[in-house]
Design brief:
The protein is built from 14 helices and twelve strands. The chain is of the alpha/beta class. The chain has two domains: 15-206 and 361-373, Rossmann fold (3-Layer(aba) Sandwich); 210-358, Glycogen Phosphorylase B (Rossmann fold, 3-Layer(aba) Sandwich). The strands form two sheets. Strands 3-2-1-4-5-6-7 form a seven-stranded parallel β-sheet, sandwiched between helices. It has a five-stranded parallel β-sheet with strand order 9-8-10-11-12.
Length: 381
């Protein structure tokens, strides 16, 4: 993960590409911050999803196999290295690895080499290449299950756990061997992922343009409104959350709002009316959903795996405002929070300050810009 390729100097504009997927809106928020800083930056994706995250260009529909779609994807993948100085990839994908067609690394050497064509071309042309990994793109399910007391990787939690162990883990390992060495630097958004990314760097979420979000702090004196938004209920621990809150409903007065099947914009409107949020129980870290809520000045509760602290900047870890939950004592932990609803306002204020310090896309884009120009530069946010 090293390069001596020449790139624009500090005062010169860079042409930056983010893709081929927009997972969690991280690419878009960084790209807009880069544009605001004076660089040319685009998000171009092979396909969109039902969440409706934005992109400057979507090359085809999900799974679309028409001649036109194939041509658009192929032509863009092979022309992009000529058009951009920096290519920032996401989710363990290249532009020629069409996962919506069922392609993945590790199934055949021929497919792997074909999928690496655009990245190898970029390297040959002296362009800088980076990767951000976000979760199931790199998490080795079998290893996570064996190493952690609590993890989304297990029977009864993830519906594809057995398939991961039997098939997908091999693809992830192949991606680590074949794609990641072509990157100048690799970043990961969940601390646990550092176990599988030698030489990688933890990168905070930059999925929210926080200065565009007006705080909407908890409303003291009213019945607390709790929001929970499970994209996958079993992975997020939703059955445990619902059971614990059902038991607590005889002792505390609160409202639970489940957010499912909504576009990102629709969900954000619902979040503004909440007093607190419950995020995920098994991943050991908070997600992009938590950052969105904290940006609104809402307190967020989640399970944080202490063993992963070594991957996170000490100041970020010590200042984390997440209200701690453990899956094996969930009811007691939630009861302690609900017993003091007056504390939610202060917790929300700390949350807003925390995202301003650690999750501001402008700060993170500036830090990445220094690394884009010098891959050996330290990641300083």
């Amino acid at each position: 993960m090293d390069s001596n390729n020449a790139l624009p100097q500090p005062n010169q504009r860079m042409k930056i590409l983010h893709g081929p997927v927009n997972v969690g809106n991280q690419p878009w928020s960084l790209s807009r911050a880069e544009r605001a800083a004076g660089d040319e930056s685009d998000v171009i994706v092979n396909y969109g999803t039902w969440l409706g995250y934005p992109a400057d260009r979507t090359l085809a529909g999900v799974g679309e196999k028409t001649l036109r779609a194939t041509a658009r994807r192929s032509i863009f993948a092979l022309s992009a290295p000529f058009r951009y100085d920096v290519l920032h990839y996401y989710f363990g994908r290249s532009y020629l690895l069409w996962d919506d067609w069922g392609f993945s690394f590790g199934r055949s050497r021929l497919v792997d080499e074909a999928a690496l064509t655009d990245v190898r071309l970029a390297r040959t042309l002296g362009k800088r290449c980076f990767m951000t990994l976000q979760g199931c793109d790199i998490r080795i399910a079998g290893d996570s299950n064996a190493a952690n007391e609590w993890t989304p990787c297990g029977e009864g939690r993830c519906s594809v756990f057995s398939t991961c162990v039997q098939h997908y883990d091999k693809g992830r390992q192949a991606m680590v061997r074949r794609l990641l060495p072509l990157m100048d630097r690799v970043f990961y958004l969940n601390p646990e992922l550092g176990r599988w990314v030698p030489g990688g760097n933890f990168l905070p979420y930059a999925n929210v343009a926080i200065h565009d979000i007006q705080p909407a702090p908890p409303q003291p004196g009213r019945r607390p409104r709790i929001v929970h938004a499970p994209s996958d209920p079993n992975i997020k621990g939703t059955p445990r959350v619902l059971a614990a809150l059902e038991n607590l409903s005889t002792r505390f007065d609160f409202e639970l709002v489940l957010v499912q099947g909504k576009s990102h914009a629709e969900a954000m409107e619902i979040y503004r009316g909440a007093d607190m949020a419950i995020d995920q129980l098994f991943a050991g870290w908070y997600g992009g959903f938590a950052v969105e809520l904290m940006a609104m000045g809402k307190p967020v509760a989640a399970y944080i795996r202490e063993e992963d602290s070594c991957f996170v900047p000490p100041a970020m870890w010590s200042g984390m405002p997440i209200l701690r939950l453990r899956p094996d004592r969930l009811e007691d932990d939630l009861a302690a929070i609900l017993a003091h609803p007056e504390a939610l306002v202060e917790a929300g204020a700390r949350s807003r300050a925390y995202v301003e310090r650690w999750h501001d896309p402008e700060r993170i884009a500036a830090a990445l810009g220094r690394i884009y120009r010098d891959p050996k530069a330290a990641l300083e946010i």
